[in-house]
From TrEMBL:
PANTHER family: HIGH-AFFINITY ZINC UPTAKE SYSTEM PROTEIN ZNUA (PTHR42953:SF3), HIGH-AFFINITY ZINC UPTAKE SYSTEM PROTEIN ZNUA-RELATED (PTHR42953). One of its GO terms (biological process) is zinc ion transport. It comes from Acidihalobacter ferrooxydans. Belongs to the bacterial solute-binding protein 9 family. Residues 1-19 form the signal peptide. One of its GO terms (molecular function) is metal ion binding. This is High-affinity zinc uptake system protein ZnuA. Keywords: Ion transport, Signal, Transport, Zinc, Zinc transport.
């Protein structure tokens, strides 16, 4: 009887091990949506940059670093804080694989032409670029856990269907509509790839993480007057002082958008709706 029980427990052990979720980490909240949709119950996702924090200067907490030691995969996306922290993550967990979800994406430099400028990292705000990221995530999950490859592919198909739906709805809002203006002003240059996807032009106030000088601020106000811009978009992760100064000079208003939504489809559609309302004025 004891021998039979021992054999039974041995048979259960592989099943229990395979049922354990794959511990993974991501840099920002939108990535959690991508990985969770593909991985489903087979993944457990830790997000490094907490809600309301700036990914450019974020520093992980000691607790996050401790939890990172258990992770099998880290999905990097090119967030600025990764440049300083990825080597430390690898040192803390040498067995964790870093997955570059930017692979296959050409990130673009700011149009300022400043020497030493870093490529714009906001690739999660463009549906065409998210499709590329989704494929990179799928490959990494299948390689890490081949036993659940079929489930991951079903999750991937679900995510692609969602991306396609979001893309179509935003195109209807911004491409298939006669807008009075196609240029908009935003404090932080988060919507660069979004704008390129829908034939819009972003005018950022902040350049390379720096607020404008008085001369640059005056030039931005002149540009906004010329282009009949009455709305200045801001993000909750950043200061709103310069944006409010410009809006006051224009007799306009400040509108908040969130470039780091955990609910990616709802967040993208909210941005599209805010832009359409502003550009149709």
């Amino acid at each position: 009887m004891r021998r039979l029980l021992f054999v039974f427990l041995l048979c259960l052990a592989p099943l229990s091990a395979s049922a354990a979720p794959l511990d993974v980490a991501v840099s920002i909240l939108p990535q959690k949506y991508f990985v969770q949709t593909i991985g489903g119950d087979q993944v457990r996702v830790q997000v490094m940059v907490r809600p309301g924090y700036d990914p450019a200067i974020y520093a992980p907490t000691p607790r996050q670093l401790a939890e990172l030691s258990q992770d099998r995969l880290y999905f990097a996306i090119g967030a600025p804080f990764e440049r300083a922290w990825l080597p430390r993550f690898i040192a803390a967990n040498p067995h964790m694989r870093i997955v570059d979800t930017q692979r296959g994406i050409q990130r673009l430099l700011p149009t300022t032409g400043l020497p030493g400028a870093n490529p714009n990292p906001h690739i999660w705000l463009s549906p065409p670029l998210v499709r590329v990221q989704a494929a990179n995530i799928l490959r990494a999950l299948v390689a890490a856990d081949p036993a659940h490859a079929a489930a991951f592919r079903r999750g991937y198909a679900k995510l692609i269907a969602t991306i396609d739906s979001v893309d179509t709805r935003i195109a209807h809002e911004l491409l298939n509509t006669n807008l009075g203006n196609r240029r908009f002003m935003v404090f932080h240059p988060a919507l660069y790839y979004f704008a390129r996807s829908y034939d819009l032009q972003e005018i950022p106030i902040q350049i390379e993480g720096k607020e404008p000088s008085p001369r640059e601020l005056a030039a931005l106000i002149q540009t906004a007057h010329r282009d009949h811009i009455k709305v200045v978009f801001v993000e909750p992760q950043f200061s709103q002082k310069a944006a409010r100064t410009i809006a006051a000079q224009l007799g306009g208003r400040v509108v908040s958008i969130n470039p780091l939504p955990e609910d990616w489809p709802a967040g993208m559609l909210a941005i599209a709706k805010a832009l359409r309302t502003a550009l149709a004025q």
